[in-house]
């Protein structure tokens, strides 16, 4: 992307707040952006398939993308990650250079910044400044996968739904507003907790009846944060936390 392009400053501002680049020198980020190219996709489009995970690296700058693992035998799927502006994929393939059973799909009209995986591997190999942000970001993603595996193995769907909502509560919002997942369909929410739509809907209605959440089309708010926390073993992120630390 040329520094003279119309959206260069806009995307620079987004990436400067991204966990992947936050804290990096302004000029360092400027120089990396020269290697990024904007790509737009409509809602519902497949923006990355399994084979592309070894060759292409993407950063979301507008809209949301879900990373899905799908079983061809029965067409069941689970959403591994839901990514918003500033988030990147596929970070693991940068290190192991292996194709992953992973598909990235646009939940909204999205704009991505793309680079070759080899180019980003060069950043990792030759720029310690990038590693200071990339490695904690990678660690956080691995931690989230571990949490997902634990949830699916150890907890029932009610607890898994509660933990999903809590992960997306805005810690800086006094009204406990929910980010990223607040307007997803019940089917999409079900895919994020490893169940089916009818079960997810039943659990959502249960939380509504108890006054814990207010869930309407395109709107999800936590009314009783303490009650939601008590339903599962979870701690809420500190307001302003950028490194994945949590209150005890």
UniProtKB/TrEMBL annotation:
Alphabetical list of InterPro entries matching this protein: cNMP-bd_dom, cNMP-bd_dom_sf, Env_Response_Regulators, HTH_CRP, RmlC-like_jellyroll, WH-like_DNA-bd_sf, WH_DNA-bd_sf
Residue intervals of the HTH crp-type domain: 155-226
Protein name as annotated: cAMP receptor protein
A GO cellular component entry from the record: cytosol
Pfam families: cNMP_binding (PF00027), HTH_Crp_2 (PF13545)
Keyword field contains Transcription: yes
GO molecular function, one term: DNA-binding transcription factor activity
Record keywords, A-Z: DNA-binding, Receptor, Transcription, Transcription regulation
Domain Cyclic nucleotide-binding: 20-141
Presence of the UniProt keyword Transcription regulation in the record: yes
PROSITE patterns in the record: CNMP_BINDING_3 (PS50042), HTH_CRP_2 (PS51063)
């Amino acid at each position: 992307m040329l520094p003279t392009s119309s959206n260069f400053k806009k995307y620079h501002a987004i990436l400067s707040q991204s966990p992947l680049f936050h804290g990096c020198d302004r000029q360092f980020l400027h120089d990396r952006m020269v290697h990024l190219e904007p790509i737009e996709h409509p809602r519902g489009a497949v923006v990355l398939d399994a084979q592309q995970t070894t060759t292409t690296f993407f950063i979301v700058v507008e809209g949301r993308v879900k990373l899905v693992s799908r079983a061809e035998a029965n067409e069941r799927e689970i959403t591994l990650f839901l990514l918003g502006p500033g988030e990147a994929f596929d970070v693991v393939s940068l290190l192991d250079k292996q194709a992953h059973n992973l598909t990235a799909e646009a939940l909204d009209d999205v704009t991505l910044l793309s680079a070759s995986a080899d180019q980003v591997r060069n950043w990792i190999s030759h720029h310690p400044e990038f590693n200071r942000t990339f490695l904690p970001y990678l660690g956080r993603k691995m931690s989230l996968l571990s949490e997902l595996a634990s949830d699916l193995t150890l907890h029932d769907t009610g607890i898994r739904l509660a933990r999903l909502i809590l992960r997306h509560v805005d810690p800086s919002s006094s009204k406990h507003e929910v980010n990223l997942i607040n307007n997803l369909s019940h089917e999409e929410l079900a895919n994020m907790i490893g169940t089916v739509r009818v079960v997810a809907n039943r659990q959502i209605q249960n939380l509504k009846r108890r006054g814990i959440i207010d869930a309407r089309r395109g709107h999800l708010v936590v009314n009783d944060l303490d009650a939601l926390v008590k339903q599962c073993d979870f701690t809420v992120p500190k307001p302003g936390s950028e490194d994945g630390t949590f209150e005890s």
